[in-house]
Amino acid sequence: MADPIRAKGVIARTPGAPGEVEEFLVPHPGPGEALVRILASGVCHTDLSAKNGVFGTDYFPFLLGHEGSGIVEEVGEGVTNVKAGDYVILAWRAPCGLCRFCQVGKPHLCSASLNAAQKMTTLDGEELTPILGIGTFCTHTLVHSRQCVPIEDGLPPEQMSLIGCGVMTGVGAALYSAQVQAGQSVAVIGCGGVGQSVIMGAKLAGATTIIAVDIDPKKLEWAKEFGATHTVNPLDGDPVAAIKEITGGHGVNASFEAVGKPQTIETAIWARDLAGTCVIIGVADQQASYDLPIAKFFDLGGSLRISWYGDCLPTRDFPLLSQWYAQGQLDLDRVVTRIISLDESEEAFHAMERGETLRSVIRL
Description:
Elements: E1 5-12, E2 20-26, E3 33-42, H1 45-51, E4 62-63, E5 67-75, E6 87-90, E7 121-122, E8 129-130, E9 140-144, E10 148-150, H2 157-163, H3 166-177, E11 185-189, H4 193-205, E12 209-213, H5 217-226, E13 230-232, H6 239-246, E14 252-257, H7 262-270, E15 272-280, H8 294-300, E16 303-306, H9 314-326, H10 332-335, E17 336-340, H11 345-353, E18 359-363
Helix pairs in contact: 3-4
């Protein structure tokens, strides 16, 4: 058996402590697996949450990162969807085709998403947990081959990496989860990287009133550049009242919550017009709760739903979004706030917390 590949990546060993750049070991691909050399990786808030123990402490040590683009270097037995040399975006959901959701034509809800069977390990022998089954703050990673989605050569890896999670989640929430229609109104509560992507998705869908809601004036200015027609800062007064004033007293056809806090979820629920759709994207703390007045909610009608990964199908949607970028319809250049090295990933988390960036992107 060939010796494992020695790779380098950012590993979080202790909840709340900084991730450190370390060497680690990557097995050669087994059946159905692919070895990918990472070209670029976005720094997403989910990585920060995992590093801080928000999702539990049983999975440490983590190999951070889950928004990645790269080159397939080697594939295992039976792999037919990609080959060595392919330029790919990595997907953290790879539908299995066999679970109860896949069998009824809903692969975007796959309950048995595919990941590599073999484990990457630290040099001292601990099994690594790659974030969302990928791990992209690194030089190389091992994934299931169906987590690799080929795209056209020549597109910039930094921008393409962001399609792998944040951009896809936001655009998909507008196009698929809420099914925004031409001429409709939307409100986006929380205008970080995902929220700005919802704005871009709503614009692509033809929404004519796009209201950005955030307490950070800088993010509201960015939102205008991405296509928001109006902005609301909750620090200036009741955001629901402001949204209704913009929409003739009615509220929006679709609202999107991209923060994960009870107060922003409350805003999203009550900012809707009659029979409007509320889409929750933000990941809340495990202890978060909200007391919902049921009769008032019933009277408003409509739907309240969760959007996982923008209800996307990566094999369909990653190439689509990459082409929209190539055609100038998806402004990913503006989403890339900073390009950094592996060694700067911890500072990128701090910049995110300070609201200075939409996305820092690690260039390998």
